Amino acid sequence: MTSYQELLKNIALADERVIVMAAENLASIRDIPGVLGKRFIDTGIAEQSLVGSAAGLALRGRIPVVHALSAFLTMRAFEFIRTDVGISSLPVKLCGGVAGFLSEANGPTHQAIEDIALMRVIPSMNIFCPSDEQELTAGLRQIIEHPGPFYIRLNHARAAIEHTTEFEFGKAEVVSDGDDITIMVYGILLDEAVKACNLLKAEGKSVRLLNMRTIKPIDEQAIIASARRSSLLVTLEDHFITGGLYSIVCETLIKNNCGCSVLPIALENRWFKPAMLPEVLEYEGFTGEKIADRILKTLHGGTYCVTNR
Amino acid sequence: MKENQLFELRQTALKVREHCIRMSGNGGAFIGSALSCTDLIVYLYKRFMRISENDMGRDYFFLSKGHAVPALYGTLVETGMLDKERLASHLSASDDIYWHPNKKIPGVEFHSGSLGHLLSVAAGVAMDCKLRGTDNKVTVLLGDGELNEGSNWEACLLASAYKLDNLIIIIDRNRFQANKKTEELIPLDPLEAKFSAFGLAAETVYGHDFEQLDELFFRIPFEHNRPNVVIAETVRGKGLPSIESRADRWFCKLGGQDMGLLLQELHDAETRQTAGAAL
Q1: Is pTM, for the whole model, over 0.90?
Q2: Is residue A129 packed enough to be buried (19+ CB in 10 Å), middle (13-18) or exposed (0-12)?
Q3: Range of the domain at B29
Q4: pLDDT, tens digit, for every residue of A59-96?
Q5: Residue B128's closest chain A neighbor by CA?
Q6: What is the ipTM of this complex?
Q7: Searching chain A, which residue's CA lies closest to the CA of residue B58?
Q8: Is A80 an 8 Å CB contact of chain B?
Q9: Number of domains making up chain B
């Protein structure tokens, strides 16, 4: 598999319009400065001028692919994204590092768990949340070619599943088909969602698992179809409960006059416990097992769970 | 500069000031702020810049203090880029001409209004010109009060690091911000030293004298590899003695009678100044 860095490098070398930018954080693009020369621009620890100058470069026909930590990119530079990139719908591609649980033990300053909420309110903005590096690279070319701005929750995880459907804007991937329950997920939590799905199947449930991929545009048809088939929809995300997938699903259901129970598994009005990823998942109740337990409890009430069957 | 060129610049500035006054009717406009940078914008468009709507080889102008837009629109009319009739629909939903610049208007490079944005955008444009090895000049005009915004200083560091000597930052130093004097609220002096300390080449000039401006701008780049800063000492409300340097004349909403009086006052002041210069 070609890595994100390798693919971005190849795209940039073949296309003079592409400028790779960073606010010093080079974790995802370490080899690119040496290869791209002057078409790599590092603005230092300065997200506002990173985004502002990216807008200026885009005005001259460039396609800036911008890298910074999600928390600082989407919050420190929010108004620059909204006003300089958003109003004119400039083709600036904003790549956010360590979003959601990926900030691990950094603490709440680094937790980008409102990034989806912030980016989706910008009218021209599109959002891509790949579940792993394979999916990230599968969508990259189309995102760079897209005439508008994108926010990408960068993620270099190994693929938990073999992706069988091609990347398409606004199209969810059906990872598992079923009827009783539909789990909708994006980003790194796909791995845990697959585990939860298997546990629920072992309990005799028919489970549909959707990997949403692009959060904006969202696959409305997949949400509506799921609401018609399943008695319970589950939204799973490493994001605040406000403004993310749960909000999007509820808005979609109401807009389309669909009634369905929705269980949100998200961060409810609090930051998560800073620790390394496996422990965060455990502590916050986002492991496959704990997700399956919450779903079963919602379906059956009381203390029903996969471990004490 | 030849006498006829100077005369033409002064005549254009006078017409642009008339547009500014006329745009202050109905819902009003930020007239004090527009008049302080009118001569600067007229100078750039009529004398300094290579103007074109789409040519990649053009020079760029960005108005970061977006509320001074009547001076820009007035200048665009006088350079033939914008249809004069459209100014009459200022603030009307029937057109796109409102209190801050709109990119949809021919000649406007980018929208603005939120202060502290266009210096970094202009730096991005200047970076691209450097990348392509072309000699476009990129000018961005900021208010002095606007320098309260930290993003400007962040962008100065960036422009300095990338040696953008094709970037020209003009500070409209009218010494007012909204309803206060800059030095009484958030003091900026010594301003030239601040920019120098950030690695830029800064010079100060009287912003209403076309000959002085000409002498200065044709020395750009002031220093090889350093972004240029022109601190233009200006007068808020310049051209209308009754509102000049008044803290409460940043934004004005003029009635029909006031407008007529101010247009008369503008011409009287210009006549006095021309007569004074002839003596």
Answers
A1: yes
A2: buried
A3: 3-278
A4: 999 999 999 999 999 999 999 999 999 999 999 999 99
A5: A57
A6: 0.96
A7: A60
A8: yes
A9: 1
